[in-house]
Amino acid sequence: MKLVVVLMMSALPLSCYAGSGCQRLEDMIDSTIDSSVTEDQYIEGLEEFIPGDTTAQLLVEFRQCFLDQSNRTLSNVQVLMVMWVSSYLPLKHW
Predict the structure, then answer these.
(1) What is the residue range of the signal peptide feature (predicted)?
(2) 71 burial via Cβ count (<10 Å: 0-12, 13-18, 19+)
């Protein structure tokens, strides 16, 4: 699961700043932990980063791992990801 997170993060362009550093990343995190987003909507939102059906299925399973958590945990994940990206982006340019 950690490898999937790393691969998803590396596939996103890390060149935008503000808030977490990237609105696209925030949208991806939001759709990953939002149970009202359907699987089709989730995959459609990540379509440009998905090379094939196997990856799409793995992303659906990956997302389900998050959706099985409590709302408090999901909220903490969202905050953690924003903090992680915010601290990582400035270091990327050294």
Answers:
(1) 1-18
(2) exposed
